[in-house]
Amino acid sequence: MVDAALQTPSIARGASRRSALRRALRRKSTIAFLMTLPLILLVALLVLYPALYSLHLATLNKSMERFVGFGNFLFLFKRETFWMVVQQSCIFAITAVIFKALIGFIVAHFVHNIPSKGQRKWRGMLLVPWVIPPAMSCLAWLWLFDPSYSAFNWILDRLSIAAVPWTGDANWARFSVILVNVWIGAPFFMIMYLAALKSVPEQLYEAAAIDGANWWQRMWYVTLPMMRNIMAITALFSLIVTFANFDIVRILTAGGPVDRTHVFATWAFRVGIEGGDLPLGASVSLFMVPILTVAAIFILRDIHRRASEMS
Amino acid sequence: MTVASLATDAATARRSRYGSISRDRRWALRWSYFFLTVFAIFFLMPPVYMLITSLKTSQEISAATDPWWVHNPTLGNYIELLTSPTYLAFFRNSALVSVIVVVITMLISVPAAFALSRMRFWGSATLATGVFLTYLIPETLLFIPLFKMFALVNEYTGIQLINRWWVLLLLYPTLTVPFCTWIMIGYFASIPKELDEAALMDGANYRQILTRVFIPVALPGLIAATIFAFTVSWAQFLYPLAFTTSADQLVLPVGIVTSLIKGDVFNWGQIMTGALLGAAPPLIIYAFLMDYYIAGLTAGATKG
Amino acid sequence: MAQVSLRKLFKRFDDTEAVRGIDLEIADKEFVVLVGPSGCGKTTTLRMIAGLEEVSAGEIAVDGEVVNDVPPKDRDMAMVFQNYALYPHMTVYENMSFGLRLKRYPKDEIARRVQEAARILDITELLDRKPRQLSGGQRQRVAMGRAIVRNPKVFLFDEPLSNLDAKLRVQMRTEIKRVHQKVRTTTVYVTHDQVEAMTLADRVVVMNRGRIEQIGAPNELYHAPKTRFVAGFIGSPAMNLLPCRLEEDDRGLRVRLSEELALPVPPAHAARYRSHVGGAGLTFGLRPEHLTENKSNGGSPLGMIDAHIEVAEPLGMETLVFFRINGLDVCGRVSPNAGAREGARMRLCASLDNMHLIDDATGAVL
Questions:
Q1: Nearest CA to CA, how far is B287 from chain A (Å)?
Q2: Which residues of B touch A176 (CB under 8 A)?
Q3: B79-302 — its CATH code?
Q4: Is the ipTM of this complex over 0.90?
Q5: Which of the two ends of chain B, N or C, has the fewest CB atoms closer than 10 A to its terminal CB?
């Protein structure tokens, strides 16, 4: 009882103080909120809403007047092209990412090995494929693969090897698409891995050397574990980006020959915009979502794990 | 090779004085340079080929004597393109769009990054991760619903959003803002909190802290983010392909691909010239600001 | 006039209480040092005074006005941070003038104040340099210059010397004291180093676990500690604290430290201690400098201790000797030529006028 009586006057004072405080707090929060508002609006209106809207779109018929539920999806399931697209998208993405990671890792090691003065030069040269807009470099590759004038075939001819139908034959076309994908993306992996390599403390290698490890053991027990996080995040990122890639296939093969190189993005474009059937196109695009979500979950888990490891 | 010399190798490699590097080390270096050269040839060959082709006349190209060397170099292709109004229009559109998008991006990203990294408010952590995740939603998923949405806007309000180059000003930021915000959050977070507190004690309000302390100190991050936004905008292909069709509305990547390829006759000399010129701005920025460029890339992942 | 009052100050972080009830009155122009181990709440208290932390309960008043809701920039206080917090992109001149430029002071006024502060701190030739070109001590002085220039009501120092090497620390300590004599602004200084506290303060506030243990002038804290914590914290090397029992026989009161060793209690203290005779839970406290080699010293009762020296640390002007009583380490200070060596046996006398007796249950010095 006495406590309560003693407390009330201070509570009264405290209450008015608290509401003044709350006003101050609110001011800071409102400013902060206003500062992030454009970002939130941008993302909400032009990213989240369209993503959800595509779900709705996919349930309409071609002229977008009738609701057809899963009709579009069932239609796609029955088309052979659709399953080819699924297969091609997955194979391209996985193969390309594996090779990009491999080449990036190897090249990063070589760059890391040379004296640091030269590293900058080499790094600069090797990143060029990434800097050039993909559309432009695809044109160069298109020209390099040209059926009649291919510079590669010219070299092969000089070596008495038969000319290769880089974009004409289905399997070669697939190879070409993956090749260009790797060409563009490997430098990115190299840069990331180089940064990760540099962040491994030199002392760990010295300790391993003193413990008697050879280069392979040093790689396995020191380098790879320390780089694990970067490797995982880069690979996942690249998987998503490669999976959803549009430019390369579109310019190089336009999906051909005979739809053998179509991926989700290009086929959705063909069907949706060129074919004028937006709902069907939306349905095609939506099939990317499950795979992207799985990748996103792995990325999130990795970020959280890293954040808790750091703290 | 004893363990002791292994350790010295590591030390001498770091100091890299050729005189004192052992034989093993020198061979390792030679192999490194060899492979690096191989890869460099692989990576640089297409742009070099673009240059070679761009200096050839159509006759030389069709003669197909030696694709890897120019016998009669000519600047004809360059002159033709640089005086062609269509091509210049592409260039102008690209430049306009890219620069304006960069400005829009920075205006949105920087305050948002400041608020998210410094001013703790309800949901700020979720928002930051959420922003990052939206970067993972590819444009290839969004372009169809956006197309329909813009068509609907046209129906209801008469504002023509399809086939206008300034539509891209709405779309490109969705690609640049999330990542730029992420970069800036990383840079802002690395500024010690005591700096804010010192500024607070000196009498600054939040706006002044942002403009007079954070932005100058985080300038490298700002430059890196700007470069990223510019390069992404300049290289965009899908959105402009879907949303702009008339020749005078096209940006460079789409323009070259669609306009220069007329029917079955490909004027490869011009196409390569056009492509090279189109790749020039990002390459030039890269050549001069390489460190910022790379910092922008790695900041996203390693600061994660 | 800048008088600061802290009344019943509390600070709660989620579920820990960093500051639990601080009452402190700081007079105008006074140099008060908050000292204590890490986690005692001294920095939190300082930051509450600055306005960088919100007060959970209690009041902070400057010149009689409660400032709990006043934002830091309006409190007219300046702070020197542990890591200096200099703006890396500004020159020293710009760093020091930043606060004034924000308030739009006229240019010549700014120049005058900066030059004056630079003169006091002896950094005039550094005005055009950037922080990264300065050494630790120079940066510290610039940080102080930034505070002085604003001519605030209160200076707040947050462990400013912790990042400097030992020699520089001693130098800067003197600088800070000199500046205070010249500028005469109320100062609240936080440190974990009790030597800094003793040398700089007008009054020292010893804090432990969010509460104030004792407030007083340095000498008062040294010679008349009120709690066990203060007794053990102030003074280096620390006071010897040994559990003991109080005995009484016909010769008077004695402090029994072990089976073999009991020291006589001087009559001056005996009166205070009489009530605790026979009880358990007492600690005997004696500073090392009062445990020294045998000197002929008539008058005050001296206790003799036969010590088997385990470790001797020669410091030049004296030698610290470490030995054991009842298995516990004891430290004494002897003259450098008293022959103290490892393994030697020495007769040490304790000047028991300076003894303290601590009640273990309450932690209070009797």
A1: 8
A2: none
A3: 1.10.3720.10
A4: no
A5: N
